[in-house]
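Bumping my old thread because nobody answered last time. Still need a sequence for this structure:
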């Protein structure tokens, strides 16, 4: 594509092919911008979520936003000839959601390049230089970072000290994102640390596979489950996450969120909609998993004969040891631009951050013009809705509109 005789229009690079990357790329393509999209479709969902997982989100919160009609989860169900998933009571298997994302990609982002971006940095003359693992170098006018959960798994310091080389499925301590098939724990003693959906569902799936499981919840994080749809309050506004004024505002009006005080923003991202198990998980969890609520984790270490020993302090102040064959930390993710090793040193140093997360302005642009973030890295600027697929409805058209206005003339 050319502007005049000698000027090649530089493409926009989208890094990531999960829900936010695919949705953003579809909106950019609809605006006529040349786009190169890199990554494996739905890779985090396919490789880092356990077999048998069911989505906590309702169907209303699980559609990727598209620039034209006909690409919702319900539309996919119709195309695939399977029962429609539309009601709040309908539960979505992860395999169905992955297949939906792949269908969305084939229809709206067919030119996806299944290669990895090794590095991104600014070019002195403008634009950004990207290197791919194929060895190709090229220049992009703007870069959208939609790399999802990759590299952001969080391990509490008390557990991290037990694994100086990092968590591993074959070591004493791992992270929940490292387990695709929990049947390997059949007949074994397992401790799962956490009280959110990831911890509770990991524990329930492992127990169903034949493991003996304890869930350890820390501090004020008590194991609890949401109310089923038919018990939601009727006189409050409806949102994709339930009926509540706060959820309604955070879902449909995230724009003012970035003007809140820094501490308030980070607190809400951590606490809204979690930690809490899905309503349908209760019967699969209770009486099958032992729960131990503690004040804090003191430490962990590899056991002499294999396995792990977890030291915990109870609410009464006493410390005790929990022995297990393995400890899984279902302790979530922490956004840290410093952990995004594909960003060049100079580019990382130029990004303004707030507790590790990029500070974003209108249109999801960072402090470096031409660099945009969407999905989880945008949550500290735009709120908890960015942790969920339905956040694409707000983010994707606004990001694409801002980028088109700022870099759509081919001179970026």
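Sorry it took so long. Here it is:
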């Amino acid at each position: 594509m050319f502007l005049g005789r000698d000027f090649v229009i530089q493409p926009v690079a989208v890094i990531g092919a999960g829900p936010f990357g695919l949705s953003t790329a579809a909106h950019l393509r609809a605006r006529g911008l040349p786009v190169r999209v890199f990554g494996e479709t739905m890779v985090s969902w396919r490789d880092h979520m356990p077999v048998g997982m069911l989505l906590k989100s309702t169907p209303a919160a699980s559609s990727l936003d598209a620039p034209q009609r006909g690409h919702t989860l319900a539309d996919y169900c119709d195309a695939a000839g399977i029962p429609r998933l539309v009601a709040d009571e309908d539960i979505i298997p992860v395999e169905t959601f992955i297949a939906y994302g792949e269908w969305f990609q084939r229809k709206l982002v067919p030119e996806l390049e299944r290669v990895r971006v090794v590095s991104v940095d600014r070019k002195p003359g403008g634009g950004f230089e990207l290197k791919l693992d194929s060895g190709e170098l090229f220049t992009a006018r703007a870069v959208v970072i939609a790399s999802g959960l990759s590299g952001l798994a969080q391990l509490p310091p008390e557990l991290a000290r037990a694994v100086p080389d990092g968590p591993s499925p074959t070591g004493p301590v791992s992270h929940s994102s490292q387990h695709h098939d929990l049947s390997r724990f059949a007949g074994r003693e397992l401790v799962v640390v956490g009280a959110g959906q990831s911890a509770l569902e990991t524990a329930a799936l492992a127990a169903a596979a034949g493991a003996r499981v304890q869930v350890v919840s820390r501090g004020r994080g008590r194991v609890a489950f949401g109310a089923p749809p038919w018990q939601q309050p009727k006189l409050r506004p409806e949102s994709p996450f339930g009926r509540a004024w706060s959820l309604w505002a955070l879902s449909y009006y995230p724009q003012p969120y970035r003007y809140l005080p820094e501490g308030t923003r980070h607190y809400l991202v951590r606490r809204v909609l979690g930690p809490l198990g899905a309503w349908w998980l209760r019967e699969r969890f209770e009486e099958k998993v032992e729960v131990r609520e503690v004040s804090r984790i003191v430490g962990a270490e590899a056991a002499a004969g294999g396995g792990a020993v977890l030291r915990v302090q109870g609410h009464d102040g006493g410390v005790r040891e929990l022995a297990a064959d393995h400890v899984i930390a279902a302790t979530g993710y922490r956004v840290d631009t410093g952990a995004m090793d594909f960003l060049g040193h100079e580019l990382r140093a130029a990004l303004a951050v707030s507790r590790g997360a990029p500070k974003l302005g209108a249109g999801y642009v960072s402090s470096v013009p031409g660099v945009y973030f969407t999905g989880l890295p945008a949550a500290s600027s735009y709120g908890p809705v960015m942790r969920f697929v339905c956040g694409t409805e707000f983010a994707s058209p606004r990001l694409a509109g801002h980028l088109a206005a700022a870099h759509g003339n081919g001179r970026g």
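The mean pLDDT is 92. Let me know if any region looks off to you.
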